[in-house]
């Protein structure tokens, strides 16, 4: 047991540490607990809140009290459905919590793999319409350890593990210059066009309520190491139909009831208990994760504010804000509101919830709402025109939008009227140029100043390569990693204050990370997508000081294939990010740029250092799906990752000519170079010793979590009879949409976690 003050309960200690600022004393206490070892491993059971009334007063959903067992299928169902002899639905997806007698109180309060019991199972179905595109090839690029899994046909039919490998686009004609200068000023006060100060955790993740394993903790720790913290949004379509209840049958923590999912999104009704919020607090205590949660907005006549009431008590400062409404400009198209629902209707409904929050004595914090989260059918200016910012300015902290550059809806939903499926090969080149990020950001540039003037952040609250699951061969290629770096930095340059990459299930190809499917979880690891590498690069490029300001250099005569960014930190030039979207062909494609700091006719003295350090994000081609490295380290190929980088970190040293005030930096084709212009600028972002997480000795020798295969199947992607939907809202891309798919990922259950006794150096 970890030592604790006798007068302080475990719950009090968890709440205190979760709510406390990251002071040296609280961090030391957390570190002491983390490194305490009773033996080779320390097991941590899930925290169970004590019996009796909680400090908040949740309004119990009637659904939690009226379940009856169906004599035909044994399912717990509503009496009204039993009375009408409605057909038995697919099984209720639920995850069970150990009984209080099984629970103890060490600090981290995480579950053991052997303590879980699961009630039901559901089949995972593959995404429709995925084909090998013309001009590409079908290959199996997974490493030898995953060869048998990768060659299994039902696995490769899942979009997350597809074998689609595209052909890299030809080199542009005419070719951009492959030798060009870049001159930057050393003093930020002399530079026009710099962004607002940005945080290293600029790029976070957006996850629906479904499932998490130990590698997820390692992934969060990898980002938090570099950024100081990591931000995660738990919500999306699921938040609109979610209800916090006092309890669920059989001590389950989350229940997804698909029999009520009659709307076009097929998003299940979701009930959850406060256990989920305690679990998020446990994660925050381990890896300094911060959370965005959602307040249901599907029925403003019967408000459900329990999640805000409980989250403030349980998560404290670890909950950053509450999203109110998810893509309201799609409500009418999705039959969530009457035809003709408009900006004024939304303005009025938003006011109903704002007033209810102000009248709720159990919600202490004010001014932390995220809205309006438009997908693009309405313009932000049209919402501003209702008086939204001026009327609700005291209630909002973040002005939000959600957007995807394209969609794969015709392939995912072949009979839904979206026309012919898109050939991924035909759109691959669209992601491999600087114009992609610029075109995504430009529609919002006129709306950002109004948010800034009102003192609000402006965030891209959900995005990725393409809605409706992404494009196989594009969304999971190295090209998407380059796109993610450029798009992320372009948003930062445009004064967005953050962005969240959406995470789907097994039936999407754009995931930054994906758990292994079904029974392969006992022998295979996770699959890390290329865009997760984007988040590492951006975290290190921006640094932990939260003072970094970004400048688009429009380098190489503004060539779309060789963009570059300058990062100023504490008002001084600190780092450069240089991108090469081209793939080497016949020895051509790489470029060398001559860097100069100050000097010449800049009005500044020569400032080029004697040497610089360079980290490279590399892969053989833009079409590569597995062999990706960041400073020579990798998460591995399909089914290989435990959430930690492996390999020896390699940081190149480049000697410069201080007399000529020049430094030659080569960027391979394809690749990204992060150039540190001083030793301090590198030290400020280098990851330090950090806790990593592994499975306990009770699991199998493969060092992975072992759980019921059917439970893992229900945790990601599509599930249940006739369930054909695969990702987030179809309407989230630029083109007009009519329907949105629903549930994809994340029921926040961490299984089999134990902390390694000593921190691992990366």
Describe this structure in words.
By secondary structure, the chain is of the alpha/beta class. The chain folds into two domains: 1-169 and 198-540 and 708-762, Glycosidases (TIM Barrel, Alpha-Beta Barrel), CATH 3.20.20.80; 179-191 and 550-683, Sandwich (Immunoglobulin-like), CATH 2.60.40. 22% of the residues lie in helices and 19% in strands. It is built from 20 helices and 31 strands. The strands form eight sheets. It has an eight-stranded parallel β-barrel with strand order 8-9-13-14-15-16-17-18, surrounded by five helices. Strands 21, 22, 23, 25, 26, 27 and 29 form a seven-stranded antiparallel sheet that branches. The two termini are 29 Å apart. The model is unreliable at 1-68, 89-147, 260-265 and 695-762 (pLDDT under 50).
Question: What does this entry show, briefly?
Answer:
The chain has 762 residues and is an alpha/beta fold. α14 packs across α16. Residues 716-732 have a biased composition (Polar residues).
Question: What integer is the average pLDDT?
Answer: 76
Number of domain modules: 2
Classified in CATH, the superfamily of the largest domain is Glycosidases
CATH architecture of the largest domain: Alpha-Beta Barrel
Largest sheet: 8 strands, parallel, barrel
**Total strands:** 31
Oligomer: single chain
Radius of gyration: 25 Å
Structural class: alpha/beta
Shape: globular
CATH topology of the largest domain: TIM Barrel
Spatial arrangement of strands, main beta sheet? 8-9-13-14-15-16-17-18
Summed up, the helix count is: 20
How far apart are the first and last residues' alpha carbons, in Å? 29 Å
Strand content: 15-25%
Poorly predicted sequence stretches spanning 5 or more consecutive residues:
1-68, 89-147, 260-265, 695-762
**CATH class wording of the largest domain:** Alpha Beta
The percentage helix is 10-25%
Pfam family, one: Glyco_hydro_79C
Region (Disordered): 1-61, 716-736
Keywords: Membrane, Transmembrane, Transmembrane helix
Domain Beta-glucuronidase C-terminal: 564-674
């Amino acid at each position: 047991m970890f030592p604790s003050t006798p007068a302080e309960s475990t719950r009090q200690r968890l709440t205190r540490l979760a709510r406390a600022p990251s002071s040296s004393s609280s961090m030391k206490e957390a570190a002491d607990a983390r490194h305490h070892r009773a033996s080779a491993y320390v097991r941590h059971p899930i925290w169970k809140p004590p019996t009796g009334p909680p400090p908040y007063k949740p309004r119990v959903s009637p659904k939690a009290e009226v379940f009856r067992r169906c004599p035909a299928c044994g399912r717990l169902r509503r009496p009204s459905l039993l009375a009408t002899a409605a057909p038995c639905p697919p099984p209720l997806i639920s995850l069970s919590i150990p009984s209080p007698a099984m629970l103890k109180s060490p600090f981290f309060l995480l579950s053991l793999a052997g303590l879980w019991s699961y009630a039901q199972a559901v089949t995972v179905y593959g995404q429709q319409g995925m084909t090998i595109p013309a001009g590409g090839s079908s290959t199996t690029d997974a490493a030898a350890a995953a060869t048998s899994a990768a060659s299994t046909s039902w696995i490769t039919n899942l979009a997350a593990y597809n074998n689609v490998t595209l052909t890299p686009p030809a080199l542009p004609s005419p070719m951009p210059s492959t030798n060009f200068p870049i001159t930057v000023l050393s003093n930020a006060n002399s530079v026009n066009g710099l962004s607002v100060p940005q945080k290293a955790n600029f790029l976070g993740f957006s996850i629906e309520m479904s499932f998490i394993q130990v590698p997820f903790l390692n992934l969060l720790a990898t980002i938090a190491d570099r950024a100081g913290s990591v931000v995660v949004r738990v919500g999306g379509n699921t938040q609109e139909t979610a209800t916090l209840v006092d309890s669920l049958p059989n001590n389950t923590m989350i229940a997804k009831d698909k029999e009520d999912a009659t709307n076009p999104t097929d998003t299940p009704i979701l009930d959850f208990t406060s256990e989920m919020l305690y679990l998020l607090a446990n994660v925050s205590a381990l890896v300094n994760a911060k959370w965005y949660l959602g307040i249901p907005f599907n029925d403003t006549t019967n408000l459900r504010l329990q999640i805000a009431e409980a989250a403030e008590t349980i998560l404290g400062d670890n909950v950053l804000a509450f999203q109110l409404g998810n893509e309201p400009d799609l409500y009418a198209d999705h039959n969530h509101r009457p035809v003709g629902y408009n900006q004024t209707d939304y303005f009025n409904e938003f006011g109903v919830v704002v007033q209810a929050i102000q009248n709720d004595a159990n919600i202490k914090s004010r001014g932390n709402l995220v809205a309006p989260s438009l997908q693009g059918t309405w313009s932000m200016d049209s919402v501003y025109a209702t008086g939204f910012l001026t009327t609700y300015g005291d209630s909002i902290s973040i002005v939000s939008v959600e957007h995807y550059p394209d969609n794969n809806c015709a392939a995912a939903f072949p009979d839904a009227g979206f026309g012919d499926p898109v050939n991924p090969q035909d759109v691959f080149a669209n992601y491999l140029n600087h114009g992609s990020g610029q075109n995504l950001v430009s529609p919002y540039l006129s709306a950002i100043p109004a948010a800034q003037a009102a003192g609000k952040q402006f965030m891209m609250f959900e995005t990725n390569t393409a809605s409706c699951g992404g494009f196989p061969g594009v969304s999971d290629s190295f090209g998407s990693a380059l796109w993610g770096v450029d798009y992320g930095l372009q948003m930062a340059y445009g004064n967005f204050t953050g962005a969240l990459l959406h995470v789907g299930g097994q039936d999407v190809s754009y995931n930054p990370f994906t758990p292994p499917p079904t029974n392969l979880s006992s022998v295979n690891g996770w699959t890390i997508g290329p865009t997760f590498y984007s988040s590492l690069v951006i975290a290190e490029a921006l640094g932990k000081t939260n003072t970094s300001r970004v400048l688009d250099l429009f380098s190489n005569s503004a060539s779309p294939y060789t963009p570059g960014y300058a990062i100023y930190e504490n008002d001084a030039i600190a780092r450069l990010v240089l991108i090469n979207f081209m793939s080497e062909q016949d020895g051509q494609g790489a470029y060398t740029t001559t860097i100069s700091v100050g000097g010449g006719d800049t009005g500044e003295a020569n400032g080029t250092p004697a040497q610089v350090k360079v980290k490279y994000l590399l892969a053989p081609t833009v079409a590569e799906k597995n062999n990706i490295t960041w400073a020579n380290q990798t998460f591995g190929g399909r089914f290989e990752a435990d959430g930690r980088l492996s390999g020896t970190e390699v940081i190149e040293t480049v000697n410069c000519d201080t007399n000529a005030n020049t430094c030659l930096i080569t960027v391979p084709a394809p690749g990204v170079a992060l150039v540190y212009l001083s030793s301090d600028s590198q030290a400020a972002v280098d990851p330090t010793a950090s806790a990593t997480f592994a499975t306990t000795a009770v699991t199998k020798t493969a060092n992975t979590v072992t759980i019921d295969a059917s439970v893992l199947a229900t945790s990601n992607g599509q599930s249940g009879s006739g369930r054909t939907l695969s990702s987030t809202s179809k309407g989230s891309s630029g083109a007009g949409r009519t329907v949105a798919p629903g549930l994809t990922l994340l029921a926040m259950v961490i299984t089999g976690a134990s902390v390694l006794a000593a921190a691992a150096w990366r």
